Amino acid sequence: MTLDDLGGQNYASTTEVAALWDGADPRTVRRMAEAGEIPSIRVGVRYMIPVSWLRQQMNGSEPAAEPTAAEPDLDQLADR
User: Could you tell me if 12 and 20 are in contact, meaning their C-beta atoms sit under 8 angstroms apart?
Assistant: First the structure.
């Protein structure tokens, strides 16, 4: 999966984020969102991550639309 696959979406699910992060486990992404390690909003029982933040983290092309918590190191995330 690539960022282009998200099209015009404003938010991505934990499953989509995990796929972007080279097959990380969606449960890890959810735990990070719950802990405030990555920016997210809660919709019912789901955590949604801003696509603008993902773009900024992955290629620096777009500023974050929302204030973020401490930004994680993507290499460190991949090791989880």
Answer: yes
Q: What is the DSSP string of 49-70?
A: EEHHHHHHHHHS-S--SS--SS
- The single-letter code of the amino acid at 78 is A
Residues 6 and 53: beta-carbon distance below 8 Å: no
From CA 80, how far away is CA 75, in angstroms rounded? 9
Composition of the chain by helix, strand, coil, percent to 5: 45, 15, 40
Question: What is the pLDDT at residue 67?
Answer: 47
Tens digits of per-residue pLDDT, 23-45? Answer: 889 999 999 999 999 999 999 99
In sequence order, what are the residues at sequence separation of 6 or more whose Cβ sits closer than 8 angstroms to the Cβ of residue 25? 18, 80
